[in-house]
Amino acid sequence: xxxxxxxxxxxxxxxxxxxxxxxxxxxxxxxxxxxxxxxxxxxxxxxxxxxxxxxxxxxxxxxxxxxxxxxxxxxxxxxxxxxxxxxxxxxxxxxxxxxxxxxxxxxxxxxxxxxxxxxxxxxxxxxxxxxxxxxxxxxxxxxxxxxxxxxxxxxxxxxxxxxxxxxxxxxxxxxxxxxxxxxxxxxxxxxxxxxxxxxxxxxxxxxxxxxxxxxx
Length: 216
Known about the structure:
There is one protein chain. The chain is of the alpha/beta class. The chain has one domain: Rossmann fold (3-Layer(aba) Sandwich). It is built from 7 helices and 9 strands, in the order αααβαβαββαβββαββ. The strands form 2 sheets. It has a 7-stranded mixed sheet, sandwiched between helices. A two-stranded antiparallel sheet has the order 6-7. It is globular and about 50 Å long. The relative contact order is 0.15.
């Protein structure tokens, strides 16, 4: 069974638990506030990928109720929760790998912790595809787990569990270079270290880039 199908099954099964544990995104308010400040346009169009139960969606709309957010996820149960938590947003099923099929342009694209489920090659392609949806001045926000890519591997959903997903680590220098290669100036970069819910040390990586006009 491939990792995408496993992800759908796992996130559908644990959607309610995920909502209970992760609706509070205050740990990331600095970067999310920076994202909001980076978008001066009123009623800006925002594409959110891997939205889960709509936790980031909810935070953004509290700060910027004028945002027009299309929130997407590959789990039907997560989308149902996201829509219930954010009736003013549009929520629909979509795999983040399908971003290259989108024709509409957006003022900003945001993906909170979708990259841990993408290989390095998939992440590079995803950033390139997401950048194409932005015009000059558009903003891209991504978060990932920072560590050596060679440490990527199967992560059980709980100690001793056979449920889990293959998780990929990414590194700031590499992703920053991919941003720049796709016309995105990095305007915010953060490494946030803490202990996760299993008591394990972890470091989150957050990058925000602004699309520049290559013709200028």
